[in-house]
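Re: [ENG-882] Designed sequences occasionally contain unexpected residues at chain ends

Forwarding the minimal case from QA. Structure tokens:
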């Protein structure tokens, strides 16, 4: 079954009681039992909810996994994964990482005795030097946020298999439309469903998808015990969003390409970060593991005047200045003061994240209008 057909049909069934083609919103907290312990698979909605079950099944199908688990936010999904570890364990991740992930790693879980290493993961050798007897997990984000670095998932899958490590892939920027990390050796795929998967900037949710039954059982225990589960209406909204994921992602990619090429040729733009360019670091890896290059584009203006970047962000009209990404509407942001403000400036600068970097989430509007907006804002 091809991706577009799976996006609409896989993992979901018409409602058995009414035949409703769209999964109903089961707005209930509890379920009647015939006899103590004799029920229809549902006891309490923190543990299971029929709307959430359908969404989890659909996500597993799209990622070529076996089990899906949904959480109240992407950070709640990250939190659940980290709770698989214990004091003394170590994690290796990229030095170009979403600020929220960096914050929960260093400000929350580091306090519980888990050690984190951040390095340039474009070279597997950098990670191999950090792996030791205490290393239990490698955390991959590709394309990275916000420099869109490309990390070779298959290479890290082989390393983790050899060293008996868990490999987690944050697939938020790419979505399963562009890449399926479980097929390349990842043990867990994590999503902020808030972004492309929901796709309409109207829901906050996270997910984890796995193939392994034991890993699913451990994560499901954490999901139920800690209780960071989404409500049924939010699950309904993401289910609705998934049905157009392939159509939206195709347009995001088309528009992203045109915007990136425009910026690359603009006389006031110094550098454009987009994995579709042949000169982009690890472009060959992106060609190998991705089906297209996505709708995220970052760029820097010439010079290092932060006021120039601020002026552009304030002058944009169609690109809304806002947190988040992946909606049908185009967004712009300033990572240094917004999404990545929790990362110390010294660490940001070492990773190449300058104070003048602008990140674009290119939406599905007409590309000509988006380019005209950028042209008038940059001047």
């Amino acid at each position: 079954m091809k991706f577009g057909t799976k996006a609409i049909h896989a993992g979901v069934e018409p409602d058995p009681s009414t035949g409703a083609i769209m999964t109903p919103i089961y707005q209930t907290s509890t379920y009647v039992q015939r006899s103590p312990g004799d029920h229809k698979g549902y006891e309490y909605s923190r543990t299971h909810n029929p709307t959430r079950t359908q969404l989890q099944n659909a996500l597993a199908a799209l990622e070529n996994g076996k089990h899906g688990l949904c959480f109240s936010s992407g950070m709640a999904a990250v939190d659940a994964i980290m709770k698989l570890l214990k004091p003394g364990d170590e994690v290796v991740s990229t030095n170009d990482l979403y600020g929220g992930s960096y914050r929960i790693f260093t400000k929350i879980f580091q306090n519980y005795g888990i050690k984190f290493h951040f390095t340039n993961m474009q070279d597997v050798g950098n990670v191999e030097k950090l792996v030791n007897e205490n290393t239990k997990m490698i955390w991959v984000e590709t394309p990275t946020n916000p420099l869109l670095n490309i990390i070779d998932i298959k290479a890290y899958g082989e390393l983790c298999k050899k060293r008996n490590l868990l490999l987690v892939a944050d697939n938020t920027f790419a979505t399963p439309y562009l890449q399926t990390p479980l097929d390349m050796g990842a043990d867990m795929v994590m999503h902020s469903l808030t972004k492309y998967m929901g796709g309409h900037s109207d829901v906050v949710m996270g997910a984890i998808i796995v193939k392994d039954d034991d890993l699913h059982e451990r994560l499901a225990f954490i999901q139920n015990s800690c209780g960071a589960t989404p409500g049924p209406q939010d699950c309904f909204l993401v289910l609705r969003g998934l049905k157009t994921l392939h159509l939206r992602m195709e347009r995001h990619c088309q528009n992203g390409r045109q915007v990136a090429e425009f910026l690359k040729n603009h006389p006031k733009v110094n550098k454009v970060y987009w994995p579709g360019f042949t000169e982009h670091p690890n472009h060959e890896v992106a060609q190998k593991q991705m089906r297209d290059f996505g709708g995220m584009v970052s760029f820097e203006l010439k010079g290092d005047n932060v006021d120039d970047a601020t002026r552009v962000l304030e002058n944009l009209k169609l690109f809304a200045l806002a947190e988040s990404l992946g909606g049908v509407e185009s967004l712009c942001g300033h990572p240094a003061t917004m999404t990545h403000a929790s990362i110390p400036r010294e660490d940001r600068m070492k990773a190449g994240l300058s104070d003048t970097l602008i990140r674009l989430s290119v939406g599905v509007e007409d590309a000509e209008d988006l380019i005209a907006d950028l042209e008038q804002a940059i001047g």
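QA comment: On inspection the terminal residues look reasonable. Residues 25 and 232 are 6 Å apart (CA to CA). Proposing we downgrade this to a documentation issue.
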